[in-house]
Write a structure and sequence with these properties.
Layout lengths: L2 H17 L9 H5 L6 H14 L4 H5 L22 H7 L1
This protein binds iron/sulfur cluster.
Length: 92
């Protein structure tokens, strides 16, 4: 790989990283605490995808069971107990 190619790859990585709205790693520890068993990491992934490409497709939304969708959240904040500090601050 040439120096120019390496710089291009780094620039793409920087652009992608800066586009990530929520720094969720998908560990799913939050799901074990959630009394509603909401698919929190999946929604974080979809949220980041939406912010990166600007749209979501219906299959991406439809594949999530209705009972695990965000409108079922009761706001107990138990999911934040396992979230990394920088992750929590980015959610606020
Ligand atoms: S606030 Fe409570 S119900 Fe809502 S996602 Fe977090 S743990 Fe689940």
């Amino acid at each position: 790989m040439t120096e120019e190619q390496a710089e291009l790859v780094l620039q793409i990585a920087r652009d992608y990283r800066s586009s990530i709205s929520v720094a969720c790693t998908g560990c799913a520890y939050c799901v074990t605490e959630c009394p509603k068993k909401l698919e929190i990491p999946k929604f974080m992934e979809l949220y980041n995808h939406l912010n990166y490409v600007g749209y979501l497709t219906l299959p991406e939304i439809d594949e999530i069971p209705e009972v695990t969708k965000p409108h079922n959240c009761i706001g107990c904040v138990k999911c934040t107990h396992h979230a990394r500090r920088d992750f929590q601050s980015r959610m606020l």
